UniProtKB/TrEMBL annotation:
This is Probable butyrate kinase. Its main location: cytoplasm. It comes from the Bacteria. Transmembrane segments: none annotated. It is found in: Cytoplasm. Its EC number is 2.7.2.7. It is an enzyme of class 2 (transferase). The gene is buk. Belongs to the acetokinase family. GO terms for biological process: acetate metabolic process. InterPro entries: Aliphatic_acid_kin_short-chain, Aliphatic_acid_kinase_CS, ATPase_NBD, Butyrate_kin. The keyword Kinase applies. GO terms for cellular component: cytoplasm.
Amino acid sequence: MQYILVINPGSTSTKVAIYEGEKEYKVKTLRHSIEELQGFPSEEDQLQYRKEKVVEFLKEEQIDISTLAIVMARGGLSKPIESGVYLVDENLLHDLKETPRKHASNWAAKIAFDIAKEAEVNAYIADPVVVDELSDIARISGHPKFPRISVFHALNQKAVAKTYANRIGKDYKDLNLIVTHMGGGVSVGAHLKGKVVDVNQALDGDGPFSPERSGTLPVGDVVRAAFSGAYTQQEMISMLVGKGGMSAYLNTIDAKEVIDAAQNGDTKAEQIMQAMIYQIAKSINSLVVPLNNEVDAIILTGGLAYGQWFTSELEKFVKHIAPVEIHPGEDEMWALAFNGYQVIKKKVTPKEYGNTEY
């Protein structure tokens, strides 16, 4: 039996999984205490520690490293690239190490690369958040100093779009879809014949507000607040991402708790959730334009898509555009394994990161 190993690090954990093809064999979250991580003198030391924890996991599951067919890693904040599966090479590792945009996902490729080298197989990433397929006109923001860029939930959006296409017996590249990822952040993408030609920049909270992000705010008021002297730069950033949106209004990021409260007579909770639904619906409706008024389906995904009340309320605003499909959850591990399996089956040809021109 040949396995797919999937690696997805977070700030204080590393999610690992073993798949047999597209079938999940074992998934585990390896926890790392903050005190433990702070004890490492360098990033390289922490990477080595995390790699050793992954190797320990394989041994515990009695998975010999020689049985690995491929290693899949979550993509990080490298340079913008087109959608696809990419071989982890020295060029990618260099950019992930040197990028000024720090995130735990940047470590995944290096951990995967080292394990894959020992197993004498290849390591890959797939559809990282920096996937950029924006149309030229979508990049124009209103001022040349601030072009629109593409940073969104590409892995999940692409995976659910392709899954939907397979289910209805069509090619993803033949469909026009609006895919809405609704989790801690919200990204709404216009998938035009296999390319996300327009999408809000979800990393900084652009677009609809969400449980943790403020979304698009009145920019003049934000500028005046930033220069008022009342807030530091980090405090302003926290208002946008982390402590914005539902968190700022209701002091919680637990959407299920708020939805339950809204359904049980809490008028403030209902008002905020309805406002979030309203903003997401406006974004979905606006993406009819880049899809030339031809939309085959609207797909709702992410953690909030588990909420039947939430999706039902949202559907009221958008069902006139196209049929609405619900694909709840954000299964990054499955999405990475899915992409890896496509490589194994030779249904997808991996790309070389160093050959991407942006």
